[in-house]
Inverse folding.
């Protein structure tokens, strides 16, 4: 039986009036292609459904990404039914996730089911914004006491977008009890703690996805 992976992406498109955002293409395309290469059945969903906007800064003309990009033309809206029938869930980043992931009731519900069932949860860069408010049914934060990586506060400041974010991701994860880990700015860094796999930045997209594969193959 082929493994089934649910990917959930952002639909949020603006940081300020003059700064557009969205999904960071590499963080979606690279993991998507790694999962497909393994023969996994991948379902791509988004918070609101429909066509997914890409962060303009992330758009690259890479022919090998065209198959992945085609999946973003008309995505299904994430529903609570998506909590069942998948072996893993993967949350790519992009600054958009900072706005529509943290408090989305459907995403929180789906992630809680994955956590309770000890299924694989993977995320990269700003994708872990979707994890900050996830708890187990007893109220314990998902990330508490776990090794986690994500886009660092230092990287956010270097981009000069820290003042425009609803919160700083590294700080928030630490507040929730995560054992935060990171490499140098813009270096490839990913970490696995049991069935939770997280990566630091776009450069970590491939290693994060490969750790998800490794975790699934052990199951």
């Amino acid at each position: 039986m082929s493994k089934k992976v649910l990917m959930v992406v952002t639909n949020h498109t603006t940081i300020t009036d003059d700064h557009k955002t969205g999904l960071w293409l590499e963080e979606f395309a690279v993991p998507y292609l790694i999962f497909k290469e393994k023969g996994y059945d991948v379902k791509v969903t988004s918070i609101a459904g429909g066509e997914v906007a890409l962060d303009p800064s992330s758009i690259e003309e890479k022919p090998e990404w065209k198959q992945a990009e085609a999946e973003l033309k008309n995505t299904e809206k994430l529903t609570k039914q998506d909590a069942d029938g998948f072996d893993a869930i993967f949350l790519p980043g992009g600054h958009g996730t900072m706005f529509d992931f943290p408090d989305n009731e459907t995403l929180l519900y789906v992630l809680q089911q994955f956590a309770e069932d000890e299924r694989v949860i993977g995320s990269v860069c700003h994708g872990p914004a979707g994890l900050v408010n996830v708890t187990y049914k007893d109220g314990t934060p998902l990330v508490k006491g776990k090794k986690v990586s994500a886009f660092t506060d230092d990287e956010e400041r270097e981009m000069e977008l820290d003042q425009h974010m609803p919160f700083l991701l590294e700080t928030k994860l630490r507040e929730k009890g995560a054992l935060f880990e990171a490499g140098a700015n813009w270096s490839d860094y990913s970490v696995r703690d049991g069935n939770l796999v997280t990566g630091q930045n776009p450069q970590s997209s491939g290693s994060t996805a490969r750790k998800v594969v490794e975790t699934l193959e052990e199951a």
In short: The two ends are 12 Å apart (CA to CA). The longest strand covers residues 4-9.
